Q: What sequence folds into this?
């Protein structure tokens, strides 16, 4: 479970990046956050990962305040970054092995890694390849595999589909649905309204640090999400 | 977890092209420098033996003590076996000093003066390789240690796990340093093995201890640049900026500070030139010569040559005694005065040198040079010690030659006796003891340790506060 309570971030230069946002993502729920560049999506993620401290409010992971107990909270979160490049001299196996160990998964075998790598759609011949020769999409798949291998109850994804081709994008969405079935809470920031609307249980629009709209899948039935997004952006920019 | 981070750092570096390049270059350069050092040392040993034999032959071939006093004896500085590793200043300073009654001894015939081409680029010894090449590699290994991970996104990924930042920086530092040591240690051990098995190179237990401490200084020096790299990498947000800053600091440390320190010391603490000192000595010599002529005239006025043949022999004997005493007094006076001028000059020069050394020690490159040269006995201090031993020997030699010369005077004419060298006093030089060398290089060692602590603490604190986004 992920929860933001009145979460606020104001930088030293006075910029209010996040302005008192609150939401809760339950187990087995996918929450997609949309917004233009600089709207505050990544800042929200950074607050959940304790990369920056909040000015006000709290970010909770499984009820643990990340600002108060950052290390403990990280046991319950997996993260997929946008455009992660990983260690280029390492193979996919070596990369996943290193991050699995950092995640405390010490007893996993090469078979376990191979299973996850296959699951994210990485070709078998790429498992032993140096990742510096990987395409952007392959890197992204490996990043997702690293998040999956941790097997944390919550997953945060920052623009995960940005490097993926249509087929890989579709595979990725199916994977997210599988993870939801396993009971994971998934928070995803994205620009990709078209893809995300099919999997999201809830969507939120962010603008200038504010969560300006939040609707459930049911509330969105019959609505054009793309149109809705543009309307909201237009309305709140005036 | 720490072990995993260390292992990853080592593995990541070893698999990188920069490691292969560094390893190959280090192996070639280190082995080449040891081989060149051994060859130079053997050539110097041969030259030294030949020069000593030639001097002995030359002395023995002199027909009279007067001739011997005129040409004097030559003192050759024996080569140091550790010059194979640390060449020091020995090729820039003279290797031979001539001792005669007329002039103050000074070291002449340096390798650079006889073959100026060697002075253009200096010697390719192991210290040079560590000082220039390996310190650059240390920078190359660390400039992107932190900032590079940030750029790749792996830092965020790592810290999204239960990884304390202090453990991560410690793991990176240990792993990175081990990776840097691998291309250094393997060729170094090979180089030492060559040194061990090479014929005519004998290292005493004392030399091995010196070598070990030189090795420790090398490691500390590389650690300074390694921790500096970590520090700058944890202070910047772009790896290109980190590299440029490190390059600037490297140039400042390695080339600018040592030279600027010498120039600054010369400005703060000026000393008279060698020509001024020589002019002072010459002026006194002329003064003494004038006095000597007056005293000689007075002696002959007071002691005219007797007319009677039976008194001439006694007169001759008295004259010889007086002449010996006169000569001894004259040379003692000149020596004492010259020694006083020299003492004053040396004190001023030492003051300037001390200031230059202390100023330049801000740079780890200077600390490395001074420390290793002191240990290898190829530096300024050992050169001065040798020169002082030669200067101390001069009055001993002149006293002996004056006595021999005056006693062998045959005022009645006829052949003078051929010099006998059995009782000629020999020059002795005891190289600096290990304990004294260690004491002398301790400030350099401490300074490097201090820099490592400062840079590592800087890197540690910066990383704890580092914005990983």
A:
């Amino acid at each position: 479970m992920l929860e933001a309570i009145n979460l606020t971030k104001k930088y030293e230069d006075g910029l209010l990046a996040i302005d008192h946002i609150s939401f809760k993502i339950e187990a087995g729920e996918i929450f997609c956050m949309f917004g233009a560049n600089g709207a505050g999506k990544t800042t929200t993620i950074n607050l959940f990962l304790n990369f920056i401290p909040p000015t006000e409010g709290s970010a909770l992971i499984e009820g643990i305040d990340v600002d108060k107990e950052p290390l403990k909270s990280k046991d319950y979160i997996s993260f997929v970054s946008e455009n992660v490049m990983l260690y280029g001299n390492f193979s996919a196996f070596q990369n996943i092995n290193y991050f699995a160990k950092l995640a405390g998964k010490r007893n996993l075998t090469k078979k376990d890694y191979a299973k996850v790598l296959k699951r994210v759609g990485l070709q078998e011949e790429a498992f032993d390849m140096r990742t510096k020769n990987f395409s952007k999409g392959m890197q992204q798949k490996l990043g997702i595999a690293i998040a999956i291998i941790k097997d944390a109850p919550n997953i945060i994804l920052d623009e995960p589909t940005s490097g993926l081709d249509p087929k890989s994008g579709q595979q990725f969405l199916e994977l997210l649905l599988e993870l939801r079935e396993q009971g994971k809470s998934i928070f995803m920031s994205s620009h990709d309204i078209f893809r995300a609307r099919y999997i999201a249980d809830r969507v939120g629009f962010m603008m200038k640090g504010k969560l300006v709209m939040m609707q459930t899948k049911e509330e969105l039935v019959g609505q054009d999400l793309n149109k809705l997004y543009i309307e909201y952006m237009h309305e709140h920019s005036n | 977890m720490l072990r995993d981070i260390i292992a990853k750092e080592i593995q990541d570096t070893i698999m990188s092209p920069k490691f292969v390049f560094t390893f190959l270059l280090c192996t070639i350069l280190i082995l080449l420098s040891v081989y060149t050092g051994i060859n130079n040392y053997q050539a110097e040993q041969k030259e030294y033996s030949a020069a000593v034999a030639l001097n002995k032959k030359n002395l023995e071939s002199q027909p009279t003590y007067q001739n011997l006093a005129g040409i004097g004896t030559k003192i050759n500085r024996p080569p140091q076996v550790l010059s194979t590793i640390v060449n020091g200043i020995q090729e820039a300073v003279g290797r031979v000093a001539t001792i005669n009654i007329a002039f103050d001894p000074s070291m002449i015939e340096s390798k650079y003066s006889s073959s100026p081409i060697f002075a253009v680029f200096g010697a390719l010894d192991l210290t040079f390789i560590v000082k220039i090449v390996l310190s650059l590699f240390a920078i190359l290994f660390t400039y992107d240690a932190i900032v590079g991970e940030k750029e790749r996104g792996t830092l965020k990924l790592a810290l999204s796990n239960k990884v304390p930042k202090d453990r991560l920086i410690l793991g990176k530092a240990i792993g990175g340093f081990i990776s840097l040591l691998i291309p250094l240690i393997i060729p170094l051990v090979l180089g030492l093995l060559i040194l061990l098995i090479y014929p005519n190179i004998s290292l005493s237990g004392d030399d091995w201890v010196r070598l070990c401490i030189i090795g420790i200084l090398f490691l500390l020096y590389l650690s300074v640049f390694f921790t500096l790299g970590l520090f700058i990498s944890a202070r910047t947000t772009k790896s290109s900026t980190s590299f440029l800053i490190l390059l600037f600091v490297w140039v400042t440390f390695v080339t600018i500070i040592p030279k600027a320190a010498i120039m600054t010391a010369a400005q703060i603490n000026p000393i008279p030139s060698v020509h001024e000192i020589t002019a002072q000595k010459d002026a006194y010599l002329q003064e003494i010569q004038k006095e000597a002529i007056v005293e000689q005239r007075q002696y002959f006025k007071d002691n005219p040559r007797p007319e009677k043949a039976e008194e001439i022999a006694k007169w001759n004997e008295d004259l010889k005694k007086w002449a010996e005493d006169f000569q001894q007094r004259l040379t003692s006076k000149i020596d004492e005065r010259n020694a006083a001028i020299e003492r004053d000059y040396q004190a001023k020069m030492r003051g300037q040198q001390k200031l230059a050394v202390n100023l330049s020690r801000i740079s780890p490159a200077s600390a490395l040079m001074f420390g290793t040269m002191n240990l290898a006995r190829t530096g300024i201090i050992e050169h001065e010690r040798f020169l002082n031993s030669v200067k101390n020997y001069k009055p001993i030699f002149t006293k002996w030659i004056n006595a021999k010369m005056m006693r062998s005077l045959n005022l009645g004419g006829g052949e003078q006796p051929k010099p006998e060298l059995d009782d000629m006093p020999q020059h002795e030089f005891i190289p600096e003891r290990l304990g004294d060398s260690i004491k002398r290089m301790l400030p350099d060692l401490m300074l490097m340790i201090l820099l490592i602590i400062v840079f590592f603490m800087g890197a540690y604190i910066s990383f704890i506060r580092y914005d990983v986004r």
